[in-house]
């Protein structure tokens, strides 16, 4: 809890209209996309870097914890006040400060909604590729803090690949700039890379320089169903080494196919073990050649069904199936633990088989879909949070899934980060020396451990 005197001081820094302290007002900032709940003492909406610096200086003096927050769509609890404190919500710092068409750069504040930036740059013929499923509500600041990925990562990479530089308020209140506006720059340590994916634990980003690309002229979409999952996986490997890199290469397992088919009545073959949804983008004409080439590759792997969309409506109907995946899951169980593991592409069938075994072992329903082109699988362990027995079995299943991922040479998280939900599993992937050096970095940045404490490290 913070004192009335501190609340008064916070109001004088950011303006009293930009501070929430009543329990009923702060309640909605007690949640994110996890199933956890931690009530903060106050919520602040700063509008300038200098205000944030003053808040951090006060926080060190008093002391109290500060938790940065964008839209609160994080899947691992990063924006929750797990040790109490004040939420610093960047939603009001939402200006696109500059779009430099000649140098293919945007300068933005952290609270810009990702799809707003995409639309703004597309209006002038440019392209910002990172597109997490939460694109319509998540913020660029949250994307940078989590190094968000998404469906286009297979061709275009993740948020990290687009961040050139940052303005950051350090936990101590000092203000720094990292990185450059130019394509190259190697002066000093690469603090930009360190900040990207640091989950709001090393500093608060208040300005972000992003790299842009020219907007692709055209797209082509293809959907393929396979009766044998190994054929789908072999097709993915062949595609990824073919020289034609799709802009998306999405995968669904049999349970997902049945779940979506039931929800939308698509008439898909119920014995299909795998689905691939593939898109290519680029110049007009070139995309026709590329999609034909990919269809030819797929034909060699005995698909049950291949559809290449010919019209915008057909494209939309193919994507509708993928977009319906999340909502359709709710027909299975009311809750889910959604992990975003990554395995080498060639290990996808082994991972799917392991998940099948884990399902049987713990008698829980698990559905897997994801970004096959980069091996990033969203493994959804379905449960009813009100059923303690099922919840315990689901957690055992997650534990086994993580062990399997590491055994296959993968990583626990491709895009959602560690936060609080994965911190207990950190040692599955990192040894003690690797954890210790990261803790020392945290202490250097934040000697009083007041910025987003209780995250990443168990
Ligand atoms: C339906 C749905 C689909 C999703 N799909 C994807 C997907 O495809 N790919 C993917 O990668 N993620 C996905 N996510 C997860 C989530 O949307 C991303 O992690 C997103 O980047 C979080 O952005 P946010 O603005 O909501 O951040 P928040 O949840 O508010 O915060 C996330 C973290 O960032 C920190 N933070 C926020 N702003 C700042 C800042 N300015 N400075 C420093 N730290 C900051 C917070 O402290 C916290 O640790 C999905 C989530 C949902 C609910």
Would you report the number of β strands?
18
Question: Cofactors and ligands present?
Answer: flavin-adenine dinucleotide
Uncertain segments are none
Measured as a percent range, the helix fraction is: 25-40%
Integer count of domains = 4
Which structural class fits the helix and strand makeup? alpha+beta
Number of helical stretches of at least 4 residues:
16
**Taking Cα atoms only, what radius of gyration do you get, to the nearest Å?**
23 Å
Arrangement of strands in the largest sheet: 15-12-14-13-17-18-16
The CATH class of the largest domain is identified as Alpha Beta
Quote the CATH topology of the largest domain. Answer: Uridine Diphospho-n-acetylenolpyruvylglucosamine Reductase, domain 3
Give the rounded overall mean pLDDT: 96
Summarize the main sheet: 7 strands, antiparallel
Which labels suit this protein?
single chain, 458 residues, Uridine Diphospho-n-acetylenolpyruvylglucosamine Reductase, domain 3, Alpha-Beta Plaits, 4 domains, binds flavin-adenine dinucleotide
Description:
The protein has 16 helices and 18 strands. The chain has helices at residues 4-14, 23-26, 49-61, 114-122, 140-146, 153-156, 191-195, 229-240, 254-264, 286-299, 312-323, 325-329, 348-362, 388-407, 426-429, 432-445; strands spanning 19-20, 42-44, 66-69, 86-89, 96-100, 105-108, 126-127, 163-169, 175-179, 204-211, 213-214, 218-226, 248-253, 274-282, 303-308, 335-342, 366-371, 376-383. The protein is globular and about 70 Å long. A hairpin with a 4-residue loop joins strand 5 and strand 6 (105-108). The model has no long low-confidence stretch (mean pLDDT 96). The protein has four domains: 4-91, Uridine Diphospho-n-acetylenolpyruvylglucosamine Reductase, domain 2 (2-Layer Sandwich); 93-214, Uridine Diphospho-n-acetylenolpyruvylglucosamine Reductase, domain 3 (2-Layer Sandwich), CATH 3.30.465.10; 218-327, Alpha-Beta Plaits; 332-429, 2-Layer Sandwich (Alpha-Beta Plaits). The chain has 458 residues and is α+β, with helices and mostly antiparallel strands. A seven-stranded antiparallel β-sheet has the order 15-12-14-13-17-18-16, with helices on both faces. Strands 5-6-10-8-9 form a five-stranded antiparallel β-sheet. Strands 1-2-4-3 form a four-stranded mixed β-sheet. 48% of the residues are buried. The two termini are 23 Å apart. Helices cover 35% and strands 21% of the residues. The structure holds flavin-adenine dinucleotide.
């Amino acid at each position: 809890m913070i004192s009335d005197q501190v609340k008064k001081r916070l109001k004088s820094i950011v303006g009293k209209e930009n501070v929430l302290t009543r329990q009923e007002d702060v309640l909605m900032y007690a949640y994110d996309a996890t199933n956890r709940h931690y009530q903060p003492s106050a919520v602040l909406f700063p509008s300038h870097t200098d205000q944030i610096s003053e808040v951090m200086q006060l926080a060190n003096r008093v002391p109290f914890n500060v938790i940065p927050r964008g839209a609160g769509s994080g899947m691992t609890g990063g924006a929750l006040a797990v040790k109490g404190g004040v939420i610093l919500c960047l939603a009001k710092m939402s200006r696109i400060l500059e779009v430099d068409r000649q140098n293919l750069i945007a300068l933005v504040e952290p609270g810009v909604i990702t799809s707003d930036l995409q639309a703004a740059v597309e209006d002038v013929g440019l392209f910002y590729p990172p597109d997490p499923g939460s694109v319509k509500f998540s913020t660029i600041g949250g994307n940078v803090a989590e190094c968000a990925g998404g469906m286009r990562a297979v061709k275009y990479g993740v948020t990290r690949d687009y961040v050139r530089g940052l303005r950051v308020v350090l936990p101590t209140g000092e203000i720094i700039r990292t990185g450059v506006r130019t394509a190259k720059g190697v002066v000093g340590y690469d603090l930009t890379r360190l900040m990207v994916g640091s989950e709001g634990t090393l500093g608060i980003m208040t300005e972000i320089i992003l790299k842009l690309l020219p907007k692709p002229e055209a797209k082509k979409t293809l959907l393929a169903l396979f009766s044998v999952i190994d054929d789908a996986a072999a097709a993915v490997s062949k595609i990824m080494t073919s020289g034609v890199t799709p802009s998306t290469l999405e995968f669904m397992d049999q349970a997902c196919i049945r779940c979506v088919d039931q929800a939308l009545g698509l008439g898909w073959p119920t014995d299909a073990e795998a689905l691939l949804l593939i898109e290519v983008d680029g110049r007009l004409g070139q995309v026709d050649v590329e999609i034909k080439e990919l269809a030819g590759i797929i034909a060699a792997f005995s698909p049950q069904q291949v559809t290449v969309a010919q019209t915008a409506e057909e494209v939309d109907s193919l994507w509708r199936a993928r977009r319906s995946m999340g909502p359709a899951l709710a027909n299975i169980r009311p809750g889910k633990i959604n992990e975003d593991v990554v395995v080498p592409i060639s290990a996808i069938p082994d991972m799917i088989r392991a998940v099948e075994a884990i399902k049987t072992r713990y008698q829980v329903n698990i559905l897997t879909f994801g970004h096959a082109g980069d091996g990033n699988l969203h493994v959804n362990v379905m449960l009813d949070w009100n059923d303690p027995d099922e919840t315990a079995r689901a957690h055992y299943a997650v534990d086994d899934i993580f062990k399997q991922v590491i055994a296959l040479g993968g990583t626990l998280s491709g895009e959602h980060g560690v936060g609080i939900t994965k911190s207990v599993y950190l040692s599955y992937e990192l040894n003690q020396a690797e954890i210790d050096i990261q803790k020392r970095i945290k202490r250097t940045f934040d000697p009083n451990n007041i910025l987003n404490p209780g995250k990443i490290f168990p």
